[in-house]
Design goal:
Radius of gyration: 15 Å
Shape: globular
CATH architecture: Roll
Pfam families: Glyoxalase (PF00903)
InterPro entries: Glyas_Bleomycin-R_OHBP_Dase, Glyas_Fos-R_dOase_dom, VOC_core
Strand order of the largest sheet: 1-4-3-2
Organism: Halomonas organivorans
Structural class: alpha/beta
Keywords: Dioxygenase, Lyase, Oxidoreductase
Strand content: 35-45%
CATH topology: 2,3-Dihydroxybiphenyl 1,2-Dioxygenase, domain 1
Number of domains: 1
CATH superfamily: 2,3-Dihydroxybiphenyl 1,2-Dioxygenase, domain 1
Number of strands: 8
Number of helices: 2
GO molecular function, one term: lyase activity
Length: 129
């Protein structure tokens, strides 16, 4: 089984650049209405992007609900410190500074993407001092 999460965005190019830089992913551009981000050197899709109202998918009409309502994009990364550095270099909106989660015992940093989605970077290495 493969999971291909899809989020609706206002600007495909902007979102491709933002997620590509933050996560070190490669862009696999579909067309002006949709695109994919893949793990480097693979055909594994990490995230799909679609313009609001870009395709005929139920629930992705711009009038349906605000972006990010009820959605958390959670990325467990092996390069947590590097990903955090990239987020800071991008002037990403940091909602919650890096801290060890009481639930997972891993470092997490909470961000907002350009479309308002919450993005969580979680350290795959576990608890750190």
């Amino acid at each position: 089984m493969h999971v291909h999460p899809l989020i609706a965005v206002e600007n495909i190019e902007r979102s491709l650049a933002w997620y590509g830089r933050l996560l070190g992913c490669e862009s696999h551009h579909g067309d002006s209405a949709c695109a994919q981000l893949r793990l480097p050197g693979t055909k594994t899709t990490l995230l799909q992007l679609q313009l609001w109202n870009g395709l005929d998918h139920p629930g992705l009409e711009a009038s349906f609900a605000g972006p990010g309502h009820g959605v958390l994009l959670w990325f467990e990364v092996e390069d947590f410190d590097d990903a955090l550095d990239r987020a800071r270099e991008m002037d990403a909106w940091i909602v919650r500074e890096p801290a060890i989660s009481a639930h997972t015992r891993r470092r997490e940093c909470w961000l907002r993407d350009p479309d308002g989605y919450h993005v969580v970077l979680a350290d795959s290495a576990g608890e750190r001092d």
